Amino acid sequence: MNDKNRIFLFDTTLRDGEQSPGVSLNVEEKLEIAQQLARLGVDVIEAGFPIASPGDFQAVKTIAQTVKGPIIAGLARANRADIERAWEALKYAENPRIHTFLATSDIHLKYKLQKTRSEMLAQAVDAVKYARQFCPDVEFSAEDATRSDLDFLAEVVAAVISAGATVVNLPDTVGYTVPEEFEKFMRTIIERIPNNEQVIFSVHCHDDLGLAVANSLSGLRAGARQVECTVNGIGERAGNASLEEIIMALYTKHAFFQKEVNIKYNEIYKTSRMVSNLTGMLIQSNKAIVGNNAFAHESGIHQDGVLKERTTYEIMSPELVGVHKNNLVLGKHSGRHAFKERLLELGYELSEAELQKAFALFKDLADKKKEISDDDIEALLKDQGRSVPEKFTLEYLHISSGTNMIPTATVRLSIDKMPFEAAATGSGPMEAACHAVDKITDIYGRLLEYKLHAVTGGKDALGEVLSKVEIGEKIYNGRGLSTDIIEASVKSYVHAINKYYYEKQHENGS
Ligand SMILES: CC(=O)SCCNC(=O)CCNC(=O)[C@H](O)C(C)(C)COP(=O)(O)OP(=O)(O)OC[C@H]1O[C@@H](n2cnc3c(N)ncnc32)[C@H](O)[C@@H]1OP(=O)(O)O
Ligand SMILES: CC(C)C(=O)C(=O)O
């Protein structure tokens, strides 16, 4: 492989992706995603912004200690306290990287930083030099690069390289550029830097105009060798460039781009679902590569074409990205062998104990539902793999509700295997059930947001409920799954309560 054409994938799902409004991941969830990103084969995992909170510090540290293979990066503003905190968390990594940034545009300098250009330049150089005292790999990002004065930006880039930056990132922070313009911009800066091969140029594009992926690809054509992106394109405001779209554009249009990435393509779908599940950010059905409709054909002429020759209407094969084509029908009469076989095909290798548990859940579901699809199985596994231990488990739920009556819920939870029951009323069945849960747990949550969708098709579909529950000053994402939507809703509420409880136990060191 010609090394100049090797593209480094910098995944920032755990940092910029977590900046999506309403998303907050705990340490275990971040670690689970980081491990999956390592399996996918990304080159760099930006694990967080260590000075942002004790939780983010702990997440970066845990990932640095645990995840082997990719470079582990942490973000730091261009000041010594941020850099020291980042290093404290990153120093355990096999390959650590400090990522420091400072804005270069006049708008940011004047209004946000209230600094002159020369003060900015000196601060950037100082930050990079300071970071290099700790870490051999230092990335500098010129925030809002695309709205910066080109001559000044080139001066900053040259100065931070002389100060020791190994990677220089030129972000389109507010998603303002368009592909041709961005390609020219990147080319101009790269060409102005003497010995530009000594450093890796990087792009980081936001999706405010829906152009993040197109702009990132243009940046790569101009000579950038690192691309920063997130799974499902999540991130601040309209999000970042989507990792899976970039990967598949480079793969499908290889003859055009002639760039190489080192990725396990068949891990893409699983990674996408995991991130959606843990962040609570649903994937729109028509989302490229990973949406439910991405490989579905609805109209007769298309179906006819695909049946005769798949490539008439498919430019990628679903199997390549890990979307499995379902042939073997699993249902209530299926046994462990068929179930295990399907799990392996879906990329899940479970221990014997996990398999037993998953099989029991599968049989329960098969009693309620005629056919079990791959989506059902994935949903069951996600449900089983709840990221925190279950202190409270929903055992029984009875709702009485209707026109002209006060909705009432009776709930039984098991706490350490002991049953506890309570009844409560509310303005609706869900509120009544939540009040009953609160009475039992003595934890009082406020349901802020609530999304229901069918994970699988048909009248007996599995419903997935993703909820955001405010407890104290924090918001917890909950997830629940059932063929009964009220049960799924209450499960998601209990899941959020479990997360809160787990966090409190950890804070108290018990
Ligand atoms: C483009 C991006 O995505 S950048 C990353 C954005 N991500 C985040 O902000 C998430 C995490 N952030 C946080 O938790 C908090 O903002 C913290 C902990 C970093 C800082 O919190 P606070 O100290 O309370 O400051 P606050 O966020 O209100 O303001 C930011 C301060 O940093 C300064 N600042 C902003 N960017 C930089 C930078 N790159 N280098 C140095 N200082 C910076 C601002 O000028 C402001 O300084 P001031 O207090 O002297 O006016
Ligand atoms: C910190 C930088 C890379 C950033 O997130 C942005 O500019 O959008």
Automatic annotation (TrEMBL):
Domain of life: Bacteria
Top EC class of this enzyme: transferase
Family annotation (HAMAP family): LeuA_type1 (MF_01025)
Subunit structure and binding partners: Homodimer.
PANTHER family on file: 2-ISOPROPYLMALATE SYNTHASE 1, CHLOROPLASTIC-RELATED (PTHR10277:SF9), HOMOCITRATE SYNTHASE-RELATED (PTHR10277)
Location of region: Regulatory domain: 393-510
The gene coding this protein: leuA
Catalytic activity: 3-methyl-2-oxobutanoate + acetyl-CoA + H2O = (2S)-2-isopropylmalate + CoA + H(+)
Residues reported in the UniProt entry to bind Mn(2+): D16, H204, H206, N240
Pfam assignment, any one: HMGL-like
Organism: Syntrophomonas zehnderi OL-4
EC number: 2.3.3.13
GO molecular function, one term: 2-isopropylmalate synthase activity
Protein name: 2-isopropylmalate synthase
Pathway info: Amino-acid biosynthesis; L-leucine biosynthesis; L-leucine from 3-methyl-2-oxobutanoate: step 1/4
Cellular component annotations (GO), alphabetically ordered: cytoplasm
